[in-house]
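A further point concerns the way the authors explain their paired sequence and structure data. An entry of this sort, consisting of the sequence and the corresponding C-alpha cells, reads as follows:
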Amino acid sequence: MKISIRSLSILVLLTSCSCLGGCIKFYGYRDVTVSVRDAETNQPISHARVDVKYLYMMVINAPKPTYGNTDADGIAVIHAANFDGQDWKASAEGFLSDQRPFFDNESRADFKLYREPAPTIEIIVPNGFRGPLLIDRRPVTDWIQGETGHRVFTYHASSNGYVAIDATPLLMGFDIFKLEARFENGAPIPRRDLVGTGPGTIALRWVDASWPRDLFVVGTESDIEKLHPIIYDYKNGDPHTISLNHTALNALFDAVATPKPANLKRD
C-alpha cells in the first residue's frame, strides 16, 4: 500500500496536535515485592502502607496511584506500572516515613523506617565565634546512630567552624533547616527564620549546600555576602545572576575536614 506525501503530512500533523493536549504512553505492569522493616531492630513492620505515585507530564493515560499494606512479615505486593518516574513512600504508625523515587522497573523494594520522634541536632560553637559554620554529614554504613532509639544529637564545632557528623540514614535524612546552635556558655544562637531576626542580627544563617555538605554562617547578612565571591560564579559579572561553584564550596570543607573513621557494614 502506497502512502502519499500528503497523507503522511496529515498523519504527522494529527499526531502533533494530539500531543499538544497530552500524549499516549504504552506501558505494562509487574508485581513488586516490598519489604518494610524497623531500621534499628530489623524487625518487620506489619500494617505499613506503601504508596506509589507516577511522575509525568503531558501523558493523558498515565497510571493511577496505587497502594498496599504489609502483612505480619512486613511484606506487601504492589501491582505497579512499568512507567518512567515513580515515587514510592512507606509509612507506618509511630514511624518516620521514607520516600524515594524509582526510575527502574524493579521487582523488589526494601524500606527501613525509624521510630518517632524525628531527630534533632544541636551544634555547640566556641564563645564569640563568628563566621562560616561547615556542617559535613558523612554517610556511614550502619543503621543505628549512637544507641537504639536515640534521637537528640549534639556536636561541637572546631575553632574554624568545622562540624563532622558521621551520619546513618537517620541523620542523612535530617531537615537541615531545623538545625539548632548555641555557644559554649549556653547562649542560644537564633535561627535566621525566627521572627525578629533582622539582617543585622547575629544568627545561624544557611548559605548554600553541595549535598550532603551545608554551609552556614554565624553572623549577619553582610557576613554571607562576603562569601559570595568565594563560592559563586557571576554570569557576565552580574552579582544578581549567580550559580554555585561546587568545587569552591567543597574546597572550603576539604581545607578543614577531619579524617572519616572506618564504618560498619550495613545489613
Residues 120-254 form one domain.
